[in-house]
Specification:
Blueprint (H helix, E strand, L loop, with lengths): L7 E3 L2 E5 L4 E3 L2 E3 L2 E4 L10 H10 L4 E5 L2 H4 L14 H10 L4 E4 L29 H18 L10 E5 L8 H14 L5 E5 L14 E6 L61 E6 L14 H13 L5 E4 L4 E2 L26 E2 L13 H20 L3 E3 L15 E7 L2 E7 L10 E4 L2 E2 L2 E2 L3 E3 L4 E8 L2 E4 L2 E6 L2 E5 L6 E5 L2 E6 L12 E4 L1 H5 L17 E6 L27 E6 L19 E8 L2 E6 L2 E7 L5 E4 L9 E7 L20 E9 L1
Parallel strand pairs: 5-6, 5-12, 6-7, 7-8, 8-9, 9-10, 10-11, 11-12, 25-28
Antiparallel strand pairs: 1-2, 2-3, 3-4, 13-14, 15-16, 16-17, 17-22, 18-21, 19-20, 22-23, 23-26, 24-25, 26-27, 29-30, 30-35, 31-34, 31-36, 32-33, 32-35
Helix pairs in contact: 3-4, 4-5, 6-7
Amino acid sequence: MFGMALTAQALGEHITINSHYMTIDGKPVVPAMGEVHYSRIPSAEWVDEVRKMKEGGITMIACYVFWNHIEELEGQYDWSDQRNLRSFLEVCKAEEMPVVLRLGPFCHGEARCGGIPDWLFTKGCKSRSEDPLFLKYVERFYRQIFTKVQGLQWKDGGPVVGAQFDNEYRGHGSYLMALKKIATDIGFDLPFYTRTGWPELASPVPFGEMIPLYGDYADGFWDRSIKEGVGNYYQAFNFRPPSNSSEGGTNMGAMDGTDDPAGLSSPLGRSGGVYPYFTCELGGGMMTAYHRRPYLYPEDAYSMAVVKLGSGSNLLGYYMYHGGTNPDGKLTYLNETQRTIATNYNDLPVKTYDFQAPLNEFGQKNPHYYMLRKLHLFMQDYGEQLAPMKAVYPCPQDTPQGDDSFLRWSYREKDGSGFVFINNYERLQNLSTKRNVLIEACGVKFPKLTIPAGTVCIFPVNVNGIRYATAQLVAKRDGKIYLEQIKGVPTTLAIGNKVLKNLKAKGPESPVYKNIYLLTSEQAERLFLKEETHNDVAYPSPVIKKVREAGPLRTITIGVNKVAEEPTDEDFEQAAVYTIALPDDSSLFTRSLSLSKRQSSLLNIDYRGDVARLYANGKLLDDNFYNGRPFQYALWRLPKDCRQLELRILPLQKDMPVYFPREADTTPGEQVNQIRIEKL
C-alpha cells in the first residue's frame, strides 16, 4: 500500500492503490481512462460527448488544463464557455464520471508552448524549474484552478479523483514535489497523484508520492524521419514486462527503476517499492504533423490495448480517446509550431486536433470505438479477477520488427484461473496465419489452434466454470456469460468433461449452452448498446465551384527542428479557392443531443492536396493536413444562417520533404473529388 496519501473516501467509495491495481470499496478494478480536452470542445456538446465516452466503456476521464487557454493575457483569466472547467466537472459529476486533471504547468498536448502562456517567457525566470519566480506564477494559476475544483473533489462527492503534475519531465523529482506541495497547500486533497513515467528523471520522486504512468503509440508524428515504419513503435505489439530502458523518443513504456524480480509485471521505484503498471498515453490514434502524417488503423489501437492488458497493465489510459478543435486565441493561434518560442518540436494544424481517435473531432464514432468497447466491457465485468493476476510470457519478448516466426501470446493467472492473450497483428506488417499452435496455461492444454493473420483475442481458462474456450469473453451480466466468436477460429467450449466443438454464434438472445451466449464480432462490439436511430434522409448535395486556380507554389522551408514547416496565412493567398454553397435546410445546421435520435450533419470533403482550410465569412473554421482521409466539418458549428463557405487548398508538390502514408494520393496538384453531407 502507498499510505494515506493515496486513499480517500467519498459517497461510500473508498479508493486504494496498491502495488498492482486499484480498488474501489475493496474490490479490484481495471479502469479504462480516456483523454478528452474540454477546452477543445464547445461546452454545448460536453454532455453528449461524455455520455458517448461512457457508452464506449470509459470509466475515467483524463484532461489537460492548458494554462494559455485560460490566461493567454497575463492576469486576465478566461473561464467562459468551452474554457469553463467547473461546468465541465459538473457535467462529469452528473454523468458519474471520475476525472484526473493534468494540471501542468507544462502540458504539451501539441498546444502552443506546451500550454505555457507566451508572457511567462518574458519574466526572466526558468520555466519548469524550482525557480521561485516561476513557482510563484504556477501557484497563482493553481489557485485559479482550485476555485473551479473546490467542492468537486472526490472527498466532497465530486468527480476529481486525481491530478498529474507537469508532463514528460526529465529533470529532478524535487520540482514535481514542489508542484505537489503548492497544490496540496492550496487545498487539493485527492485519492492519488500521478506523473508521466517517461523520460527517466534525473533524480527520483520519493516513493509513493506520485504514481508513474506510461504509454505506447503505434506511430509518431514527432518522429524526424519521413519514411514508413521507422522507430521502435513495433515494440508496442509485443507482450513483454515493463522495460527499465530510457524512452528513446518513441516507446513510452519505459520504467524508471529495475524490472520486478518477482515477475509481477509492475514497475519498481528507485527506492525499491513497487508501482502498479498503469498507462495514461496508450495511443487511441495519432495526430498529423506537417512533416509526418500517419494513417492509423482501428487494429492499431485495439492490438496495443490487448497487448498492454496481457502484459500486466491494470489501467488502460488512452491518448486521445476524443479529438477536438483548438479554441480561438486572443493574440495568436494556439497550436504548436516550430516558430513558437518554446515547445517548437513540430508544426501542427492551426485548428484541428482530431487525433484519429475512437471519437473524432466532432464526436464521430470510429471503428475502434466499437472494437475497444468490447474490451472495456470485459475489463468492467472481469476486472476483479484480472487485476490480481500476474503476467506470464511464454514467448520471446524482444521480438524484432516484423518477426513472424512464432505466435505472440501471453497469459495472466492466479489460483489456477487465467486469461490467454493472443496478438497476431503488427502495424504495417503482414503477419502470417499460425497453424498447429499449442497453448498451455494454468495447467490447461488447448487443442491445436490455427490463428489467422490479424487475429487479436482473449481466451478464458478456468473462469465461470469454463475450463477453456476458443472464443473471447466479453461480459457477464444477470447470470449470462457472453463470448465473441473469433473469425477463422472454430469455437470450442470445454465445460467440465464436456467439450462442445464448432459452435456457431446465435446472438445475445439464444444461448449455445445453458447460460452461455456466443456473439459475432459486430454483436460483441454493440452488446448492451442502444444504437442511435436515423431517419433515412437523402441530403441534397452542396454545390462546389472553383473560383481561383492556385498561384505559384510556395517554397517549403526547413524549420529549427530540421523538418518541413507548415504554410503560413500568407501562403494561402496563393491557394486554389472553391466556394461551397450549402442547401437551405435548417435541419442540417442543428445538433440533436438525444442519444436515441441524433440527426447531426457533417460536411465531408474528399480531396487531394497539401493543406486545406475552411472559412466562413473570412474566419478560419478548421484545417486539414492531407493524409488520404477526407476533411470533415460539423455543420451545427457554423455561424447562424451561414450557407456559403470558402475552401482553400494548397497543391501537393513533387518530392516534398513530408511523409505521406500509402493511402494518400501524392500526385502533384490539388483536386476536390467529392463533397457531400452525411450523418454523424
